[in-house]
Amino acid sequence: MMRLFLLLVLCSIAPVARAQTFLSLDSCRTLALAHNTRAKAAQAQVEKMQYETNAYHANFFPRISLQGMYLLSSGEFDYRNHYDLYNTPIPALVGMLPPVSGLDNAFLDRLYRSIALDLDITVKPHNTYMAGIRFEQPVFMGGKITTAYRMAQIGKQMAQLNLMRSREELVLQTDRAYWEYVKTLELYRTALAYRDAVGQVCNDAQNGVETGLLPENDRLKAQVRLGEAGLLLRQAENGRRLAQINLCMTVGLPLLTPVAPLDSLPDTAAARRLETTPDVTARTEYALLNKQIELQRQQINLARSAFLPQIGITGGYMYLNGMTFNGGKLLDEASFSALVSFSVPITQWSEGVHRIRAARADLRIAEYRMQETLERLFLEIVKTENTLDEAALQTAIARDEYAQAAENLRIRHDRYEVGLESLASLLEAQALWQQASSRYIEAKAALRIAETDYLRVTGQLEIKN
User: Could you tell me the pTM of the whole model?
Assistant: First the structure.
C-alpha cells in the first residue's frame, strides 16, 4: 500500500536531463506577442497605414519645387538684312527672328534699328541659365483630398483593430499550446505512475509463481498489462515532445528548448459567464465592421468629388541670365508669375450619377454583410458559452470519477495485500484509475482552453502590452 502511493507521489517529479526554461502562462503570452511573425506583420501593417495617412495629409499643403536650366553651346546664330524694311510687314520681320523667349520691347526696338542700318545680327546662347522656384496649391478639388485623408485615417484604425484581433487569436493559440503541454506532462506522469505500479504487481506475481502462491495465468495477465502500460507511457512521451515543440514554435523559442511550466491545471473556470443576452458590440470584429461601413461612406464622397469643380493656384519666381546679342548681354532679369486655374465639369453623359449610385450600392452590400456577420458573432458567443459550460460540467464529473477510481484502487490494493482480492481485480482497478486520471487531466485542459476562447469572443480577454 505505502509503496504504491510513494510511486504515485514520486511520479510527479519530472526528470531533468539539462537546464530548463521555466515559463508561466503570462510569460508565454508575452514571448508570443513579441516574437510571433503574424503579430509582427500586423504591427508592420499599422506602421504602413500611419505612413499612408501622413502622405495623404501632405496633400493639404502646397507643393514647392526648384527649377533650373543651363545651356552650354559653342555655336552662334548670324543674320544679315536682305529685305526692304519699308516694304516688309512687321509680322514678317518678327517671324525672321530666332525663337528666343523673354524678349521685351526695348530689345525689339534695337533689333529693328540694327536691321534698318543693314548691320549684322549675332546671337550667342553660350552660358545661358535659368533658375526659379515654383509652387502649386490646390484650393478646392471637389473634396477629394479631404476624403482621401479620412479614408487613410479609417484604414489606419482598421489596421490597429486587425492588430488587436491578431493578438487575441495569438493569445488563444498560445494558451492552447501551453495547456496542451501541461496536459501532456501530467499525462506522462500518470502513465509513468501506472507503468511503475503495474510493474510492481508484475514482480509480485512473478515472486508468487516462483513460490507457488499464484498460478502462471496471473503472471501472464500482469505481463500483458505491463506491456499495455509501456505503450501508454511511450505515447505519452511522444505527445509531450510534440507539445513542447509546438509551444516553443508558438512563443518563438528554439524548437528543442526544454520547457518547464510554472502553472498547473485548475479544475474550475474563473471566467464569468454572461447572464443576459450576448453583446457583440464588445468584439473587435464589430468595430472592424463599423469601420468598413465608414470606409464605404467615404467611397461615395470620393466618387462624387471627381465630378465637382476644381480650383488651383500656381505661382513662381524665375531669373534668366545669359545669351549675348551683338556682344551685349540679352537676358538678365527676374520675374514673378501667378496662375489661377479652375475646371467645371459640364456633362459626362451621366457617368458621375452612375458611379455614385454604384458606390451607394457597395454601401448597402457592406451593411447586409455586417448584419450577417453580427448574427454569426452572436451564434459564436452562444456556442462558446455552451462549450465552456459543458467543459466545466465535464471537469466536475471527471473529478468525481477520479476520486472514485482512486478510492476503489486503495480498497482493492488493501484487500489484495491481505489476500482477499485477486490479482486480476487489482490490475483492473489500476487500469480504471489510469483512465479516470487521464480523463480528468484532459477535462481540466479543455476547460482552460474553453475559458480563454470564451473571454476572447465576449471581448473580456485582457492582453498586456
Answer: 0.75
